[in-house]
Write a structure and sequence with these properties.
The protein is mainly alpha-helical. 67% of the residues lie in helices and 0% in strands. The longest helix has 19 residues.
């Protein structure tokens, strides 16, 4: 790997970490690109090339992942959770949640209780198969079945 590629990857990781820390805040591509010291257009292209999804989709997925935890483990209203994870519209939250998970937030809450597993196992189980990355590939190589993801888009992507 060249030094320039390594530097770009480090910048993109720094930006992704900033998105992970501030997922509940209003973020735009220009602000996150500034963390990576890149122009917004170059940042978006590079982010998608390295991580396989656009910065906007990554942020939406992180927000939905957090909302899934809150829906399972708290009794707070769907509307409160929507605003707490950074969405500004309940309609957008519900549509995005359904696109990623495959069911509405209310249906998800009814069908899923709190998880009783170590956090690292929970994180792996709640990620789309493509996002499991090296850990998922290593588990599959050792013959350990990961199973299907709880994300609807992961199941659609895995279908032939």
């Amino acid at each position: 790997m060249s030094r320039d590629t390594e530097d770009l990857n480090r910048r993109l990781l720094r930006a992704r970490d900033a998105m992970d820390r501030a997922y509940a805040e209003p973020l735009d591509v220009a602000a996150v690109a500034a963390v990576a010291f890149l122009s917004p257009a170059h940042f978006s292209r590079s982010f998608r090339a390295v991580f396989g999804e656009t910065p906007h989709r990554y942020l939406q997925r992180r927000r939905v992942e957090r909302s899934m935890f809150l829906l399972r483990d708290t009794a707070r209203s769907v509307t409160d959770i929507c605003f707490d994870v950074g969405f500004t519209s309940l309609g957008t939250f519900s549509r995005t949640f359904r696109d990623i998970v495959g069911e509405s937030p209310s249906a998800y809450r009814e069908q899923h209780g709190p998880m009783a597993a170590p956090n690292c196992v929970q994180m792996l189980a709640m990620r789309p198969l493509g996002a499991a990355g090296a850990a998922g590939a290593a588990m599959r190589a050792r013959g350990i079945a990961i199973g299907s993801s709880s994300f609807g888009e992961a199941a659609a992507a895995a279908a032939p």
